[in-house]
What does this fold into?
Amino acid sequence: MTTIPFTLSLNSLRFPVISLAVLFALLFAGCNEFDENKANPTATFTKIFDSDDFSTAFRPYDLIQTEDGGYLFFGTIGNFSIGNSDERPYLLKVDSTGDFQWEHKGKEPQTGTLENLIVLGSAANKEYYYFCRDQFSALPLAFKIDLTTGTVTEQVVNAGSSFTFPLSVATVKDTRGTTQVLLQGYNSIDNITLISKLDTKLNLLTDGPWEYEIEKEADSLVIRQVNGFIDPLPFMTGGFEDNPNFFYFNGFRNFKFSFNFIDAASGEYTGSIDGSAVGDDVIKSATHISANTFAMSRLTNGDHSLFPFKEDVFFEAETSVGSPDFNVGAIPFLELADEARIVPKKITIADQDFILYSVDTQSGQLALLAFNTLGELKGITYLGRGNKVTTGNFTVTKDNGLAILGKIFVAGRFPRFVLFKFSEEELKGFVGL
Amino acid sequence: MTQSIRFSLFALIIVILAIPPTHGQNKKRRGRSGTGGGNLSNDQWWIGFKGGLNSSAVANDETYAVFSNTGSLSQEGDIKKYENISKYGAQVGLIIAFEFVNNLSISLQPETVSYKFGYKNEYQWFDFEDTDNALTLNLDHDHTLRYFEVPLLLRYDFHISGESDNKKPKNRYEASSFPIIPYAQFGIFYGKLLSASKSADISGTNVFSGATSELQSINQTIDMEPLLLSANWGLVGGIGLSHKISNARISLEANYKQSMVNITNTKERFGQNELVTDTYDVLDDIKLRNIELSFRFIMPLKFITSKNYNAL
It folds into this structure.
């Protein structure tokens, strides 16, 4: 039997001890990174919502973060082979991580989808609606959305007997703080723009729709747009939280496509920013910041200018988008695509107000531009590269992040909804905080 | 890059610290501590190098996808088809071993290792109204990860007697009668990410009005370092065969490595915008599993001569 010699001195333990110490030191140093490697799955993600249907096309308009932390997307669904006129309203509900929950496809006769989701009801019991047009009668249609089941129920809309061709919808507050629904429409028989003020049951609050005469020539533009033959004109309506005495609508009035200010009590026209007669030089988008200050954009024959901090927009004055005074502070943004969708919104990041623009660029990217309330650019970022990505809408989320709904052309050809969700930290970094 | 250099310097310092204070003849210790084999100390230092090839598999603890299927028409292309043990990386490094008990040694083996793994996706779209239209998109994702790793291994040599127990060596200074010495080793490793890249090949087939055409193939290569944790650790074990050549030893060994942590940086999973929107890809939660085959060459640092002045 051979005895294995065994000598173990402190000196001979030096290497094993040092080696172990080094390894454990390295592991300990890495522990934080290992332990903290558990991202919140709702904070940052990107999701593309797809089916394997070759011919389906989606167009995103609006999104809302729902009480369960998920998202309700709204837009249209169409078919490549049939064309835009067949676009129907489309709803898609996903959970807080972007996973599919349900979808709803509007059916005939729903067409002419208005771009906003409307939220009514109380804070504790919110009711979600979308509006569109009856394909045959041109009357407005409204549908209440059941978030749990994914079903919709048609609601009776009493916007007045002469109200046809709904063009835009928004909620406003009256002087008592009561929510009202503004519905902009068009009557092609009388050639008038119509504004109906409705209560939350969608009944008309005035004797009839307020009427604003327009030129006969505008009729063909409106009709061609509602039939999907030309790119959308930027119809919109809305109110001012700090001034319930006025609301605005962007549409045809008198001889021009104008951004019009209206007395909320009487419906009387009080002032405007006038565009061109044929809608090629207009206010493309706008959001109210405070008092007489707006964030806007102007479209001039395919060229875009941004007005991130447009002061001195008086509700009882008349000006023109082409006047030199109006264009002080304009930022020509040549990077924008000719038919860019531009969505400006005021958002608050770390107690600071910013104006965020989501826009479409010539290179097929979705660009986010952040301006402070002095109109200074504080950040710009691009989404998408090889596959074209365009703007839908965006919203600040409950976790102080940002959710951006866009459209991505999957495989370069299939238009699909895409959701970009950014965390609060990413949003702060974007604006340099 | 700066981080890599800093870590390399750190590793070098570790190696220097671990090397014994004297090289070659340890005159002071000679004749003091030995109990067998004359007056020789029983511990021995070895230094050498290693190199070889490896192949990886991926354990995906949780899968993630960019696509979210809508409705009954489900797009299944986002299910990744991993290609395990099909791509080859390489490793090269130093060996510093200390045999503190006969047949039992501990070694630090700082090395750079490149791991390669990949997976495929196949997406399909069908026209349900016109069956002459369809599109298939194939995405082939390859990943190359390069780490600086420091494995710490405990190794046992199985000295096999050739003919009878009488031939069994009394200690390591006596050559085994059997020319090949098998051994087994086990330990842990810590790795620091040096670089990482991802290559995505996009190809496909377009069927339009019944005519089939191949899509133009596109390759995208990106730096994916931000998508991974900067460190990794795991367990390693293996077996090998060693052969004595003069004072040196050459060995061939096979090791299995298993990461113990998810190497994906979960906070940056969706951070590469172009990767997400162009290749519809995000990393799963993954742990690397790796088989490596290495050639080793080591030589002793203590040269001790016998009475006949032969190197042992």
Q: What stands out?
A: Helices of chain B lie at 2-18, 273-279. The first strand of chain B starts at residue 44 and ends at 62.
